[in-house]
TrEMBL record, chains A, B:
Protein name: Recombination protein RecR
Signal peptide start and end residues: none
Record lineage: Bacteria, Pseudomonadati, Pseudomonadota, Alphaproteobacteria, Rhodobacterales
Ranges annotated as C4-type zinc finger: 58-73
CDD domains: TOPRIM_recR
Domain Toprim: 81-176
């Protein structure tokens, strides 16, 4: 038993399974934490426990929250007429960090996938259509990933909303801010050229 | 508040400060854990708490353990005549994973450093010298990093033991297994050439 105790080995194995980590980085993190076992490590254990117990999905939009309705859905200062549809909570967080959108969200929790047998019901798309009617939504922004699955899902939702009066939009595609043309893939360059605008 | 709740934000900030991680990887890890909040996340909180409470330094060698004397120091199957001196516990773990050494260890917990005012007493070097006398040690292997600080510390310990009868050795320096000469630094190539051996 090289690593101190059974619990330490179990801890390293558990941390090594987190996304982006492996045995080497897990050992480094565990040793760092053991060195700070009276401060950072105890604090981390307590926070993990309280977040694990308090976290749930917002009943309206699917965002992660510690109450029934999340802070965004219950914020009276945000516009009711716009819903931004995202694949998962990480995308919602990314949009919020941009501070560019002040409407409501809807988290699908995945994309349509015939292979994985994920259909519209699994993603709460009927619930989204109900929300659009009941909340008087004027615009649905499909902020889905520019992948095949993301775009398939976007097309499905756009088709389902075709008969309604709501405006369906998607994120602009083009050159990222600070991006160098030389390093961009051909698809992005063609899309940016097709969507060129007058200056 | 983009990330769900104050506790979630505090958790992300705490995880982002761990070695090798940052805000982006911390957010990814926290979302992954919240998705598994009834299994992996609760288990991680419990293990962190129990390791934080149980871990301490072995009174003999300084290894991390959950008892007074670590499993290596109290293992009767290991040789008493050899002490391997390492800079910190990560190095001890690395040597144990190699399964090549079956003696005892001594963890310095750092290297001598005039700049940081770390002297021999801070590293427990007097304690090491006492151990060498009381445990009838015949060989001290200085498995210290091949850095300036590591080698300064190695020289200091070798000098301090010069008057005793103990044999002081260091790890061989040369080409790592699987290493390609083309990618090695000049210092390593020169050292490997100077220490060449007949085949």
């Amino acid at each position: 038993m090289a690593e101190g105790s059974d619990d330490i080995q179990a801890l390293i194995a558990l941390i090594a399974r987190l996304p982006g980590l492996g045995p080497r980085s897990a050992r480094r993190i565990v040793l760092h934490l053991i060195r700070k076992r009276n401060g950072q490590m105890t604090q981390l254990a307590q926070l993990l426990d309280s977040v694990a117990n308090a976290s749930r999905e917002c009943l309206t939009c699917g965002n992660i929250t510690d109450r029934d309705i999340c802070a965004i859905c219950s914020d009276p200062a945000r516009a009711n007429g716009e819903i931004c549809v995202v694949q998962d909570v990480a995308d919602l967080w990314a949009l919020e960090r941009g501070h560019a959108f002040r409407g409501r969200y809807h988290v699908l929790g995945g994309t349509l996938s015939a292979l994985d047998e994920i259909g519209p019901e699994d993603l709460g798309i009927p619930g989204l259509i109900d929300r659009i009617a009941s909340e008087g939504v004027r615009e649905v922004i499909l902020a889905l990933n520019a992948t095949v699955d993301g775009q398939t899902t976007a097309h499905y939702i756009a088709d389902a909303l075709e008969s309604s009066e709501v405006v369906v939009t998607g994120l602009a595609q083009g050159v990222p801010i600070g991006g160098e043309l030389d390093y961009l893939d051909d698809g992005t360059i063609s899309a940016a050229l097709r969507a060129r605008r007058s200056l």
